[in-house]
Design brief:
alpha/beta, N-(1-d-carboxylethyl)-l-norvaline Dehydrogenase, domain 2, eight-stranded mixed sheet, 14 helices, 49% helix, NADP-dependent phosphogluconate dehydrogenase
């Protein structure tokens, strides 16, 4: 392929992805269907359907240098933690000054500030890109929250806007702020999940005859609490009354909202609903008491993110290892 840079001002129509799992893989599927040229590398090899759809499958991150025209853009959708640093080191050794790397995973924002500084020293742009919308969003239109310097964000903004729902992109601030606002978003999500789940548990515990499914269907249409989460709970309950598929009531999660609670304590911002939501998830892993609320949380989380119906070691490991560095306050000069 020619190494000629793209025409000045032209919106980029190609990019790379490291990590073709549930989110990265669906982002790639959406992009390929929209006519983008996508190169991808993932542990275990690219899914066959992506290769059939036109993905240029690479064996290692070093392959992006030859596969993409400069200035290159490579997204990461890999689990938070040490693996992000490993991939960044491999990419930094292969890419050239002026190229941009975007971390679309749930990395801790303090880690993203540190990574930005390290890559900037090597002439590489870095964007921390909070990604929301779950599996359907990745496939049909996501929500992106970017943090980083203006030039690096401008490089990826056209692609993100093309892969987002209308209005679903924001340059939230300087380095680390994309992942910070995504972290706050996840804390809000936890509080909403618990409120809906506790309400569901009350419906289930009522001794008098009560049509739970019809009630959920009614709430979906015009009520103040109508939302995608209520939709997901209603759909899950319709297909599995009582939500028995989540029999254990063990709610697995990657632990990033734990970081937000620690940030809130340091910032002296009271977040009792979010903090209690974290405690409730932890409580789900102990005594198997009344599980209706836990099964409801599991059903909704599975609906939007494909999260498991019980314990899963790889996720528990990410919860333990996801934040690499200490809580980090951004320096005053690290703005847009």
């Amino acid at each position: 392929m020619s190494s000629t840079p793209e025409r000045a001002g032209a919106a980029p129509r190609e990019f790379g992805i490291v990590g073709l799992g549930q989110i990265g893989g669906n982002i790639a599927r959406q992009a390929l269907a929209a006519g983008f040229r996508v190169a991808g590398q993932t542990k275990g090899g690219a899914p066959p359907d992506l290769i059939e759809a036109g993905l240029l499958a690479l064996q290692e991150p070093a392959g992006f240098r030859a596969a993409l025209r400069p200035p290159r853009l490579v997204f990461l959708w890999v689990p938070a933690g040490p693996v992000v640093d490993t991939v960044l080191e491999e990419l930094a050794a292969a890419l050239e000054p002026g190229d941009v790397i975007a971390d679309g995973g749930n990395s801790y924002w303090g880690d993203s500030i540190r990574r930005h500084g390290r890559l900037r020293e090597q002439g590489l742009g870095f964007v921390d890109l909070g990604t929301s919308g779950g599996l359907p969003g990745a496939r049909q239109g996501a929500c992106f929250m970017a943090g980083g310097e203006a030039g690096a964000v401008a490089r990826l903004e056209p692609i993100c806007r093309a892969l987002a729902v209308e209005g679903g992109f924001v340059h939230a601030g300087g380095p680390g702020m994309g992942h910070f606002v995504k972290l706050v978003h996840n804390g809000i999500e936890f509080g909403m999940l618990q409120a809906i789940a506790k309400g569901y548990a009350l419906l289930r515990r009522q001794d008098a005859p009560l049509d739970v499914q019809a009630t959920l269907e009614c709430w979906r249409r015009g009520s103040v609490i109508r939302s995608w989460l209520v939709d997901l709970l209603a759909e899950a309950h319709h297909g599995d009354p009582g939500l028995g598929r989540a029999e254990s009531g063990y709610v697995e999660d990657t632990g990033e909202v734990n970081w937000l609670v620690m940030d809130a304590i340091r910032m002296e911002v009271p977040v009792p609903v979010i903090a209690q939501s974290v405690m409730q998830l932890i409580a789900s892993r102990e005594a198997p008491a009344e599980r209706d609320w836990a099964r409801a949380v599991i059903a909704m989380r599975h609906g939007f993110g494909g999260h498991p119906f019980g314990p899963e070691e790889s996720i528990a490991r990410e919860r333990r290892e996801g934040r690499v560095g200490p809580i980090h306050r951004p320096a005053p000069d690290q703005g847009n």
